[in-house]
Every structure is written in structure tokens, then in C-alpha cells.
Amino acid sequence: MTNSDLLTMSNISKRFGATQALQGVSLTVRAGQVLALIGENGAGKSTLMKVLSGAHSPDSGQMSLNGRPYAPQGPHDARLAGVGMIYQELNLAPDLSVEDNIMLGQEPHWWGFRNRRQQRDQVRRVLDLLGHPDLRPETPVRDLSIALQQLVEIARALASDSRVLVFDEPTSSLTRHDVERLFVVIRKLRDAGYGIVYISHFLEEIRQVCDAYAVLRDGQSVGQGDLAGTTDTEIVSLMVGRGVAELFPTVAHTPGDTLLSISNLGGERFPQGLSLDLRRGEIVGLAGLIGAGRTELLRCVYALDAVKNGSVKVAQVSIRHSTRSRMRAGLGLVSEDRKTEGLAQTRSIADNLTYSRLQPYARGGWLRLGRRRIEVVRWMQRLQVKAQSPEQTIGELSGGNQQKVAIARVLHQQADVLLLDEPTRGIDVGTKAEIYRLMGELAAEGKAILFVSSYLTELLAVCDRVGVMAGGRLRAIRPAREWTEESVMSIAVAK
Questions:
Q1: N or C: which end of the chain has fewer CB within 10 A?
Q2: What are phi and psi of 141, to 5 degrees?
Q3: What is the helix, strand, coil percentage profile of the chain, to 5?
Q4: What pLDDT is recorded for position 202?
Q5: If residue 19 lies in a helix (H) or strand (E), which one and from where to where?
């Protein structure tokens, strides 16, 4: 350990029953450093951070913090010792003010009475460090944007004198502008001498904000070092344990006749008079800021949301505004919210995969479960779903495997037009590459894909055409090769 090492984790191991979640993992975080913790879903990142935060006790190994032995007995103990966790899912009291949320559980007091003056001084100190004058102490948290709520979480960690901060997928719900503002804050904290662990699936983000990296695979440390001089391909190869020729694999496909025609489509608020044609064997991407109306468009096309005007045609045939009619016409939707809307978390893989088309397994009012199981296994093999069996509960799978089941469901229901809403959000790089390849294969089979994503790099790499939405309207659509990320954003933010 050097004088600048804030945190060391040495040979950490943790087992849950027959599963070896961590095996001899070592990690060092230095003062004034942003360390990227990288790995596929199920690699052990969350378990390692739960050990750090005191939520789990390691079976073996040692930790030190600020040069002293560190063995927290729980999350509160870790927080008092100087470890702050900023999770993807925010943990705030919405009816309390910014000030009260920041100091919740650590209010200064004297003889049982809260010292409001000392509390305000502490809150002002941390808010000044964050450099956000728009974050006012008296504002109720419910009135803040997601980005500002996240800053309250950061401020809470700083108020407890945390010197090691862990950011777990912090940008998943932020706009591009808010992401840049968050990165400014992280750099400011780094320059102030904090040690930061940054967990993300986006290598572009990691390049922007991190100095060093550590890679986990199957619960083990497989690589670490400075980001400078290390290529994305080398990092991905460490993650997946095999050579990766390309991050965005493509499969040759040729667009054919028009399959889906959207004409002057209008919803309750969005979309607004939108028209778009989608051809067989074509992947069309939709870019835009959060609130641009992309999700609302897909929900109207699938008739999940009310349609005020316009029409949807499949193979030149108008389809009634009902979800059942759209499904029968060959449309399938993969929702952006797979946990609460796209999948039934407490049901099995088999149930989730087949619920939208049970007819092949029905006889006399009974389900032929054996026949269904054979078909489910076939789909699991095709999409490389990693699970114990078709009977395993969806909620027990990693995010990437859940997403594969959601895609398998619309393929099983024999959809020819796939409406994919943020299908790669929250999944690791290796699984993303598998989904990109699958999309290419489906296009080669003649299916049409309408692909919503906030990740411009993948839209430009995977799609044949890319459209930009704003205010519920399609501002422009061109072949992907004619776009750059800058030109997409210039149209997305234009008034």
C-alpha cells in the first residue's frame, strides 16, 4: 500500500451456497483517482461493492481504508467509516427538503435537540463543493429532476465525510446534458482528493471520466491498469474471456418492400402527426432526447396508448387500434421497462416466453407443458439465455438474460415487425454484441426492426437509417452513414 491509497481490498472471496460469487478479488483505489469497475452482468461487481458497503461480510480476505483495517458490520458502519454509495436506484425521502435528505440519519444535535445552524453550515459546504446553485436546501426533493436528485445522494455521502465514493450506473436515467454536468462534479471530486469507483457498461463514458480500470469476470480479477494505452477491444476481451473482433458485429441484410407504414399518427400528447415507412429486412433507429416522444410512438404503434388520429398499416393493410389486432398483424414490442412492464418477474422463463402465444401448446383447455418446454429450450439455446432451466424465475436472471427472454417472447409470437425500446440499456458489452448480431440475423430473415436508443454510437453502427425525434415529431431521417453524433444532437436540441 502506498501513501496515496485510500482503499485496498485484498483476496476477497464470497460464496452463496454452491455459487462462488467472488474468488480472490483484489482492488486498490487511490486518492484523486476515478477507477472504472468493469464486467459483464454476473461478474461479481455488485457483490464486491456490497462487501465494501458492509451489506455482505466476506468469507475471506482483508480490507483497509485510509491505512487502517476496515471490516464494516453493516452499511451504516461503512458510511461512518467514510464509504459513500450512490446507487442507480435513488434512495431519497421525496417529501423532505434537500437539506433534510442530505443530513438524514446524521443530524448534528446537542442534548437531544437538532443544531439547525450547524446542519445548514454542513449542507452549504457540500453544495458549494458540488457547484450547483440550482440545488436549493429548502426545496422538496419531489420537485427536483432526476439529475438533481442524484446530486442530493452525492451530497449526502459528502456530508458524512466519505472519502471513497461508489457510483453504480449513475447515468442510466440522465439526459446527455445532465451526464456532462455529472462528469464535471466527478472530476471536481477527483481533483479534491476523493477516491471514486465508477461502474458502467458504457466504455465511452469510462473513457471520459475514469483514469484507471479493473475488470472482473466470473467472480475473479482478470485485469487492471491505467486506461491510457489500453484499447476498448482489450478491455472487452478481458470481460468476456475471448477475443472480440468488433464491438458492433453486423450481419449482411438487404431492405425489401415496405412492411410497416405509419401515417400522420397522433397520440394523447405524442407523437404529433408522425409518418414513417419501415421495410422488410431493415433496421431503423430513432434518436432524441428524453421526452422526445420515441417511447410514446412505439406504444401508439402497438396500440398500448390511445391513438387520436392517423393509421398504421402492415403490408398495406390498415390495422385496428387495438393491441390484439396489432399482435395478430405481426407486431411485437420489447418495452424499455423490462422489470415492471416487459416481464413478469415472479414467473418462470417458460411462462414469460410463451404467454403471448399459448395456442401451439393448448389441447382441450389444457397446456401440454412437455411440448412447451421443448420449444422454450430451443429459443433459449438460439438466444444463448444463461439459466438453470426454463422453470427458473425471471427475477433471478441477470439483466442481459432477462432482455434476451423479452426478445425471444416477441419472436416466439411470430412477430415480423419488432419494436425495440432501449433493448441494450443496463446490459454488459458482451451481451450487447450478441443482441446486435441477433438484430442483423433477424433483418437478414426479412423482419423489420424499429429501434429506439439513447446510445448514439450503437444507432449509427447498427442501423440502416436513423431518424431524430423532438417534441413528438420526426425532425429528419437519413441513412446512418450520413449522420454523426454531433449532427444528430444538433437536430435533437434545435427549437
A1: C
A2: -60, -30
A3: 35, 25, 35
A4: 81
A5: strand 19-30
3-state secondary structure of 369: helix
**Domains parsed from the chain with CATH numbers:** 5-240 (3.40.50.300), 258-492 (3.40.50.300)
**Mean pLDDT taken over the chain:** 89
Q: Which three cell numbers stand for residue 371?
A: 411440448
In the structure grid, which three cell numbers stand for residue 418, read together?
Answer: 419488432
Give one DSSP letter per residue of 121-140, joined into a string.
HHHHHHHHHHT-TT--TTSB
Q: Where are the alpha helices (DSSP H) in 96-231?
A: 98-103, 116-130, 146-159, 176-191, 203-209
DSSP 250: -
Task: Determine the Cα–Cα distance for residues 276 and 135; give it in Å rounded to an integer.
Answer: 41
Rounded to a whole number of angstroms, the distance between the first and last alpha carbons of the chain is: 54
Q: What would the grid cell of residue 342 be? A: 416487459
**Closest of 427, 478, 419 to residue 450, by C-alpha:** 419
**In the prediction, which pLDDT does 169 show?**
83
Closest CA to 92 of 155, 183, 21, 174: 155
Q: Spell 222-236 as b/e; 16+ CB within 10 A means b.
A: bbbeebeeeeeeebb
CA 113 to chain centre: 43
**pLDDT confidence of residue 122:** 81
Residue 444 · residue 253 · CB < 8 Å: yes
**How many other C-beta atoms can be found within 10 angstroms of the C-beta atom of residue 128?**
10
Q: 144 vs 92, 99, 141, 239, 276, CA distance in Å?
A: 11, 13, 5, 37, 35
Position 123, amino acid: V
**Contact of 182 with 154, CB cutoff 8 Å:** no
Rounded CA separation 477/463 (Å)? 12
- Round to whole Å and give the CA distance between 305 and 296: 7
Task: Answer left, alpha or beta for residue 157, where phi above 0 means left and psi between -120 and 50 means alpha.
Answer: alpha
**pLDDT computed for residue 210 by the predictor:** 96
**Tell me, what's the pLDDT at 394?**
94
Residues linked to residue 112 through DSSP beta bridges, in sequence order: none
The 3-state DSSP class for residue 1 equals coil
Q: Which regions in the chain score pLDDT beneath 70?
A: 1-3, 89, 173, 242-246, 495
- In angstroms, the CA 164 to CA 8 distance is 11
Q: Are 35 and 196 in contact (CB under 8 A)?
A: yes
Q: Which pTM value belongs to this model?
A: 0.70
Q: Which residue has the cell 394523447?
A: 268
Distance CA(85)–CA(47), nearest Å, equals 13
Which residues, in sequence order, are bridge partners of residue 83? 164
- pLDDT the model gives residue 118: 77
Q: Which three cell numbers stand for residue 70?
A: 476496515
Check residue 243 and give its pLDDT. 57
